[in-house]
Amino acid sequence: MSTSDTAALLRLVQWLSPAFPTGAFAYSHGLEQAVAAGEVGSAEALACWLGDILAHGAGWNDAVLLACGLRGEDLSELNDLARALAGSAERLRETEEQGAAFARAQAEMTGAEPTPRALPLALADAARDLSLPPDQIIAVFLHSFAANLVSAGVRFIPLGQSAGQRVLAGLHARIAEIAARAAAAGRADLASSAFRAEIGAMAHEVLDVRIFKT
Fold first, then answer.
1. What pLDDT, on a 0 to 100 scale, did the predictor assign at position 111?
2. Residue 123: what pLDDT?
3. How far apart are CA 120 and CA 95, in angstroms?
4. Which residue from 43, 68, 78, 112 could staple onto 163, CB 3.0 to 4.6 Å apart?
5. Is residue 131 part of a domain?
6. Is 176 exposed, middle or buried (CB count within 10 Å of its CB: 0-12, 13-18, 19+)?
7. Structural domain harbouring 79
8. Into how many domains does the chain fold?
9. In terms of pLDDT, which residue wins out, 5 or 121?
10. Pick the residue with more confidence: 109 or 127?
């Protein structure tokens, strides 16, 4: 890897790190509801839940939207599609609020005018000029998504830090495989069958006591 490629990778890692001010720590993607309902209560259950979200839920759709954006498709059209694909009010809030925060942070770094978009498309806009393979960008994005939800699980289930890291490490091969497929996918490949997670996200809207926004 050349020095310029390494610098590009470091920029991407910075954007998708917990230190970047998107407020990702405040969102659980419905995991809080799944834990409260007794559906996720162990490291094994968390790994299964996350794997399904990545392969069959919002993880897959966000990866495909990111791929479409990286290859130069119209970001406004893709943003409308991302909004339509959000399965609940909280899902929409999650992607829009994080995307807007990402765009603001980017604008403060570059001096450009921020354009709020759903998170994968805000990233696509910033990452189009990076000298990195699309599957690598998508993999780091999915890893960041999974890492944030593992952190939520560690705090709320609760799990030990080591158990959480084992869950995340166990998802690496699956993330790489999903990223490779998504990099070659298009709009016709968008699909979601994580119905239980979507129903959980809707139920979270009326959860009596909540730690997370979603």
1. 82
2. 98
3. 8
4. 43
5. yes
6. middle
7. 54-204
8. 1
9. 121
10. 127
Angstrom distances, CA of residue 30 to CA of 24, 40, 67: 13, 11, 24
pLDDT in tens, 54-81: 999 999 999 999 999 999 999 999 999 9
Q: Which of 169, 67, 73 is nearest to 120 (CA)?
A: 67
Size of the chain in residues: 214
209 pLDDT more than 90: no
What b/e sequence results for 17-46 when a residue is b if at least 16 CB atoms lie within 10 Å of its CB, and e otherwise? eeebebebeebbbbbbbbbbeeebeebebb
Token pair 């790994």 in the structure block, residue: 47
Q: What is d(CA 86, CA 214) in angstroms, rounded to the nearest whole number?
A: 13
Structure tokens at 125: 């806009």
